[in-house]
Amino acid sequence: MLRKIFSIGAIALLYAACTACSVEPWVKPYERDHMADPIMSFDRDPVATSYLAHVYGVREGSRGGQGGNGGGCGCN
Amino acid sequence: MMISQRFLAILAFIFGIAHAASGSAADAAPDFALKSTHGDNLRLSEHRGEVVLLNFWASWCGPCRQEMPILNTLHQRYNKLGFSVIGVNVDKDSSLADKLLKDIPVTFAVLLDDTGAVSSSYNISAMPTSVLIDRDGNMRFLHKGYKPGYEQDYENEIKELLRE
Amino acid sequence: MVVTKEPAIKLLREPRAASLPRSALAYLFDMSRASLWDSLPLALLATLTRRLLTKFSLVLLSSAPLLFAAVLPEERADVLYHRYQGGGLTVDGPSVLIRKNINDKVSVSGNYYVDNVSSASIDVVTQASKFTDKRTEESLNVSYLEDRTLMTAGYIHSSESDYISKTFHFDFSQDFFGDLTTLNMGYTRGNDTIKRNGDDTFEETATHQEYRVGISQILTRDLIASLNEEIITDSGYLSNPYRSYRFASGNSFAWAPEVFPKARTSSTTSLNARYHLPDYRAAVYGNYRFYRDGWDVKSHTFEIGYDHTLPSGWLFDVHTRYYKQTEANFYSDLFERANEFDYMTRDKQLSTFHSIAVGAGVSYELPFKNSRWIDKASANLYWDHIKFDFDNFRDAREKSIAPSQESLYSFDADVLRFFLTVWY
């Protein structure tokens, strides 16, 4: 399974690198108004979200899967 | 994987060099006319003969809000010597700009680019963006983003352009 | 994109259409930063996640809430009162988070969390395990921002009367491509010490490792999605010293301590998406997660929700979640005899079951225009109702019924979250 995560990581890196080569970003920095809105954050209230994830985590047989980072205003 | 990335980087570098080498003098700042927050129209070329700092900002952008009082200070300090800050707000809903200016009042003109046309003609690739334009209307310095300390560079560049 | 300014002459001149040289230059800047990566040992591959949950250790891994990769997370303080009530179990307590940014590069946060447990749950009543307990968890995170790279390291210490857990995590986040794409990687390592109340001779250990990788992509002005993969491996003592399996004995049944494998490896793939409605300040969000592990546990999770705001500062949230799991290969509600297999458990969390949850929340946000100390504050209340239905876990409290004929167990739970947040 470790090989799987390494190959996924490599694909992710290639994807990120390749997109920089030939395509112009289609959402301009000055069009990030919606993305900058807190309601578009994957995790607006971390303390509350992590608690509910904990409630499920200790009652279910599954682990993980709370990912998602990115978006935002893209400033600086 | 790492090798192909390096190859791409070298290729990119060559492209970049080739493009940059073919340039010559500074470029004229694209002219435009926009409505200001006071309702009147303002054209950039009306400021020919003055040094202008064109600042693109949005109400939802934290570093932009941080920068506003500092730009206001620079405007007040050097306005008499022939310098102006012109703010260009890129909010799609201009009332958000008005709301922010109530909290952070500024004495320089703020223009409303709600369609993004001017931002697009200036190829804005970061928020905020500040462009320093000299007395002949040419773009001379570009600042992408804002971090505390940038205002030192702004001030040095303004003084340099004022001396010309 | 770049921190240092450059003369306008080189960049502004490029016409919009000729994107290759310009983005190639930017790409080159990315690559120079990417040389940081060359020095990172390959073993530290991971993605950015917020939390890792290890069921057995009950550790809540709150890695830094990394919302925006090119600016530091907002400074804030949260005080949460949490309460879970269901299936005879009540757990409540506080969770406090404080985050402070030191300059524009470093952010520090600390969290203090308590679970006060009082239990008369089905496991307690049938097997007489713990009655009341208190779990305390402290964590500290430090984030460092350099241009478009955000690195976070954190340490979490969790302790209760019979379980101590120490966890370290490292996360790395990089923005690419005009800040439309974010690559997240993370690694977590935890060590647990498991004891048993009433038995001073009992002490076991377990270790957990997690590797995370994910990509977050802004697809349109209104839509963002992320795809994440987590590999979790555990080794050591992975069971519960108080829990037993049951086996048929005569006309009834008897208990024996459960036996777990000493290793577990799992893979979790999840897809998240958020969509901002074009004309209102509202958002729709959804999440799908697929889990499978070496114990044959497989699960699917679906979640959708809706956030609606009003200009006056109110926010309303509704959401629903569906979860379906199939059992571990060494699970059974009733084994035929003692020591029937090498590994045996009756842990209902490893059975075949599904759950449906509905929840709603309301928030009120108040801006502080004239205050030097506070930017804004909010009060929030969230309530979730979860119904668990087990397909092969039976209610062993029904004494008059023959084993394996008892009704399938199900229970309802309510989760309350009330919290105040201050931004400064």
What does this structure look like?
The complex is a heterotrimer of chains A (76), B (164) and C (424). Chain A has helices at 2-22, 33-36, 46-57. Chain A is mainly alpha-helical. The mean pLDDT of chain A is 84. With 164 residues, chain B is α/β, with parallel strands linked by helices. Chain B has 5 helices and 7 strands; from the N terminus they run αβββαβαβαββα. Chain B has a 7-stranded mixed sheet, covered by helices on one side. The longest helix of chain B is centred in the N-terminal third of the chain and has 20 residues, at 2-21. Mean pLDDT of chain B is 87; it is low at 15-25. With 424 residues, chain C is mainly beta. Chain C has helices at 8-11, 19-39, 122-127; strands at residues 6-7, 53-54, 59-60, 76-86, 89-101, 106-119, 132-146, 149-160, 163-176, 181-196, 199-218, 223-236, 244-249, 252-257, 263-276, 282-293, 298-309, 314-326, 353-367, 376-394, 408-423. At the A-C interface, α1, α2 and α3 of A face α2, β2, β4, β9 and β10 of C.
Q: What's the quick description here?
A:
The complex is a heterotrimer of chains A (76), B (164) and C (424). With 76 residues, chain A is mainly α. Chain A has helices spanning 2-22, 33-36, 46-57.
Describe the secondary structure blueprint for this structure.
The complex is a heterotrimer of chains A (76), B (164) and C (424).
Chain A: H1 2-22, H2 33-36, H3 46-57
Chain B: H1 2-21, E1 33-36, E2 41-43, E3 51-57, H2 62-78, E4 83-89, H3 95-103, E5 109-112, H4 117-121, E6 129-133, E7 139-144, H5 150-163
Parallel strand pairs in B: 3-4, 4-5
Antiparallel strand pairs in B: 1-2, 1-5, 3-6, 6-7
Chain C: E1 6-7, H1 8-11, H2 19-39, E2 53-54, E3 59-60, E4 76-86, E5 89-101, E6 106-119, H3 122-127, E7 132-146, E8 149-160, E9 163-176, E10 181-196, E11 199-218, E12 223-236, E13 244-249, E14 252-257, E15 263-276, E16 282-293, E17 298-309, E18 314-326, E19 353-367, E20 376-394, E21 408-423
